[in-house]
Structures are given as C-alpha cells and as structure tokens.
Amino acid sequence: MLMNFVLTQIFNFSFCFLFLPIHGRLHTSTSLSLSPISLPPSPAPTAAVSPSSNANSAIGTTVFNVISFGAIGNGVTDDTKAFKMAWDSACQTEDSEILVPKGHSFMLQSTIFTGPCKSGFKMQIDGTLVTPDGPDSWSKRNSKRQWLVFYRINGMSMQGDGVIDGRGEKWWNLPCKPHKGINGKTLPGPCDSPAAIRFFMSSNLRVQGLEVKNSPQFHFKFDNCQNVLIESLTIKSPALSPNTDGIHIQNSNNVKIYNLLVSNGDDCVSIGTGCYNVDIRNITCGPSHGISIGSLGDGNSRACVSNITVRDSIIKNSDNGVRIKTWQGGSGSVSSITFHNIHMDTVRNPIILDQYYCLTKKCPNKTSAVHISNILYSNIKGTYDVRSPPMHFACSDSMPCTNLTLSEVELLPASRGHVVSNPICWSAYGTMQTIIVPPVLCLLEGNSEVLPDNDNDGC
Ligand SMILES: *[C@@H]1O[C@H](CO)[C@@H](O)[C@H](O)[C@H]1NC(C)=O
Ligand SMILES: *[C@@H]1O[C@H](CO)[C@@H](O)[C@H](O)[C@H]1NC(C)=O
Ligand SMILES: *[C@@H]1O[C@H](CO)[C@@H](O)[C@H](O)[C@H]1NC(C)=O
Ligand SMILES: *[C@@H]1O[C@H](CO)[C@@H](O)[C@H](O)[C@H]1NC(C)=O
After folding, report:
1. Domain containing 282 — which CATH number?
2. Does residue 397 share a domain with residue 308?
3. Among the four residues 114, 285, 322, 376, which has the most C-beta atoms within 10 Å?
C-alpha cells in the first residue's frame, strides 16, 4: 500500500517532468521566451525521476539527475552546461534535488550558481566533482579566485558521500607561491588561486557529509552568510600546500561547524572580520595551522568579531593551536571568545595571541589596534613542540588585551632536550583561575587604565 503510494507519487512526478520539463517555470513566469532560465536540453531529459534514484529521497522530492541534462561524468568532458541546466530547473521547483550520481566524475569549469531557489532545495553529491586540471585548463573568461560559487541562496542543503576534488597541485607549484620559483625563490606575478566552494550572500545553508580535497586555495569560503550548519566533512590536502584553509568564514553569523576531520597546509578553520555567534565543536585538525581568528585589521581596517566558541576538539602536529592574530593599525574588537576542552598533540604554538601579525617582518609600529578582550582558555591540555613557548600573548602597546582568563590549562613539552617553556606576554591583562602549567606569571593584573569603560570599540 505504501509502496503503491510511493510509486504513484514518483510516476506523477515523472509524468509531470517528461511532459513539462520546465514545470517550475509555470509558477514563476508567463513569458517563456524571456525567462532567464536555461533552455531545456534537446532531446528533453528523460528518467529524471526514477524509482531507483529516488529510493532514498523523501516522498515528494523531485530529483534532477545531472546525467539527464547531458552530463557525461567521465572526468574530462566539460559538464558545466548540464549542471547549470539542472540547477535552473531544480532551483525553480519546490522540494527538488539535484543528483550528482555515484560512480561518475564530473569536470566543471568555474561557475556561479545563483538563487534564491524554491524551498526544500538540495544538492545531493554522491559522485565526484573535479576542477579543470590546473591554471592552464582554467577558462580564461572565469575568475581565478573561485571555482563553484553559490550566490544569493536562501535555503539549501548540500550533502552526500561524494568527493569534491580541487586538483590543486599545479596551482600550489606556481612560481609565485612560497619557494616554488627557480632556485627555491618566490617569484612575483599574478598569484590568484581559486577557493573550491564559495557561498556568498546566502542563508539557511547546510553542508554535510562530503569529502573535499586538494583545493587550489581555501576549501570552503562563506562570506556574508547567515544560519549555516557545516557538519561531518573530511577536508584533506598536503601539509605543504599553500593557503589551503579548510573553512574560512567572514561577515557571517549564526554559523555552526561540527564534526570535521581536517588536514591541510593552512588554517583548519579561519574566522575573519564581521563574524559573530559561531559555534565550533568536535573538529580534529592536523597537520594544519590550527584554528584561527584573523588575521584582522589589515590596512588599518576596522574588524569586529564576537561570541565565538571552539570546544571539544583535537589539534595535532600543527603550527598553531588556537590563535588570534591582528595587524597593527586596525581598530574594532575581538571579544567573548571561548576555547574550551581542546586537546593539543605536538603543537608548535598551542595558545597564541599576536597583535603584531606581519608577513614581511618590517611592518612599522602603529598606535591603533583591534581591541582584544574577554577571552577564555579553559581545559586546554596536551603537548607542545619545544621550539616555541606553549603560550604567547603579544598584545598592542597602545591597546592592551583585557580580561584574558586561563583555567585548567596544562601544556607539556612533546620531547626532551632544549625546551622553550616560558610563556610570553606583552601588554596582556588577565588572570589564572586555576593552577596553570606552565604558569603564566607575565600576565598583568587588574584592568588596563588606558581603556575607557564600556567602550565597544565602534563595533
Ligand atoms: C566527532 O567527529 C567525528 C568525525 O566526523 C565523528 O566520527 C564522531 O562521531 C564525532 N563525535 C561526536 C561525539 O559527535
Ligand atoms: C552566542 O552564540 C550562540 C550560538 O553560537 C548563541 O546561541 C548565543 O545566544 C549567542 N550569545 C549572545 C550573547 O549573543
Ligand atoms: C615596535 O614595538 C616593539 C614593542 O614595543 C619594539 O620591541 C620594537 O622595537 C618596535 N619596532 C620598531 C620598528 O619601532
Ligand atoms: C571576563 O571574561 C569572561 C569570559 O571569559 C566573562 O564571563 C566576564 O564577564 C568578563 N569580565 C568582564 C569584567 O567583562
């Protein structure tokens, strides 16, 4: 009985789809010829909805299999057009799903997928998506800063157990990248490399289950997004791949990042300006450059970051653990940040706060800075790589850090021999709530006098 119902539903949808392949348009446009939506492929797609491809979908979901739109999936042929057509049809249909089927590898050129889409929209990625193979294969017409962009989406779930492969190696080896030029030099020249997946000006997003690897640059970038859930992803690229941040967010709020496994060549997760209400849990990073807030205040800019929690995570074999980094000369604030229950395993700078961030070592001293306050480090335990001190709080002379709190922090050298163990502090006001190992005797007591009360630093 139930089965009958399901089949009836399915066949109703295929019927609908076969004879009105653009049925979403019926609700949205009376002028077929002027519609911005791509024309249906010729011949018309068939079997877009079939009992087998629909088996795991909720009753009532219309499935748009990219193969029905002409995608080949041999890893070589450019399938961009078919994906765009599948997108246009699915996006205009309530409760629809774009299906990227298992057992195929689809090569896509850099593309912008634009919303908003109808409600209940999903992209089910069970197969593989690959980039063009390196800069020479990148279409000259496309931006080299991004590959797949999702723009103005309100409500979308991207999920599946498929793979997104950025094939970054030829980008990492460009002569402009650190030490990749002749004789190990870094050569000047255009150096743009694409972020693999970018969500821009979007909301109510969920990204779940995928493996994303070898991005030419950031694996995921979310900017100007709200209400985002990112969970159960595996992100992988080599430890020496430049700028391959796992997830970068900026100007975004209400973001939840849960259950990730990340190994890469730059920050595991990085949080840029304009982020607030971010909850990060159960992330395993390493090798990586750790979890980072910043860099902020570049070019004397104002940066505002608040209410960020990172908890129940593991950072191993990484350059940094939990880091806050700002340039001199900025303004604004970083406040209400909690790092809780984080296990460090052989991390070079497990806890680092650096307001003198500078890539060239010759940045001039400036008098303004992003104000850092109300930072809690609690239950952070494990081992540090003995080449650097386990804790480092280098705050601005003119704008000291205030209300740093350490509780249950215990960091031991990962090996014997020459051990650098004394924590470093500069203009850092804060307290130790429990016994801290090693003790941070350099923290200043009380509150800095240079700061006016209740100053929200313009944020
Ligand atoms: C933490 O994340 C890992 C990796 O995704 C997952 O296998 C594990 O079940 C998660 N643990 C919890 C308590 O959710
Ligand atoms: C901080 O962010 C969390 C979500 O991560 C939210 O639930 C909470 O209400 C926020 N707190 C404040 C004071 O805005
Ligand atoms: C900048 O300030 C720091 C800390 O006061 C000091 O050690 C350093 O010498 C200064 N650098 C320059 C270029 O003035
Ligand atoms: C200091 O920071 C803690 C969180 O780390 C916060 O609970 C407390 O209210 C802050 N104190 C002041 C005076 O702002």
Report:
1. 2.160.20.10
2. yes
3. 285
Question: How far does residue 212's CA lie from ligand 3's centre (Å)?
Answer: 42
Tokens of 276: 């607030």
Q: Do 14 and 138 fall into the same domain?
A: no
214 plus 327 within the same structural domain: no
CA of 227, nearest ligand number:
2
Give the number of other CB atoms < 10 A from CB of residue 140: 5
Which amino acid would we find at residue 218? F
Ligand nearest to the CA of 281: 1
- Are 297 and 338 found together in one domain? yes
Tell me if residue 418 is catalytic: no
Q: Which of 289, 343, 371, 392 is catalytic?
A: 289
Testing ligand 4's pocket by substitution, the residue of 309, 374, 405 carrying the most ligand atoms inside 8 A of its CB is: 374
Residue at 273 is within a domain = no
pLDDT band at 287 (very low <50, low <70, confident <90, very high): very high
Extract the runs of DSSP E, i.e. beta strands, from 39-153. 62-65, 74-78, 96-100, 105-107, 111-114, 122-125, 128-130, 146-151
pLDDT tens digits along 343-392: 999 999 999 999 999 988 889 999 999 999 999 999 999 999 999 999 99
- For residues 71 and 201, state if they share a domain: yes
Number of domains in the chain: 2
Distance CA 307, CA 338 (A): 8
> What does the block give as tokens for 114?
């634009």
Distances (CA, A) of 358 to 106, 236, 247, 255: 40, 27, 22, 28
Ligand 1 mutation target, pool 233, 282, 310, most atoms within 8 A of CB: 282
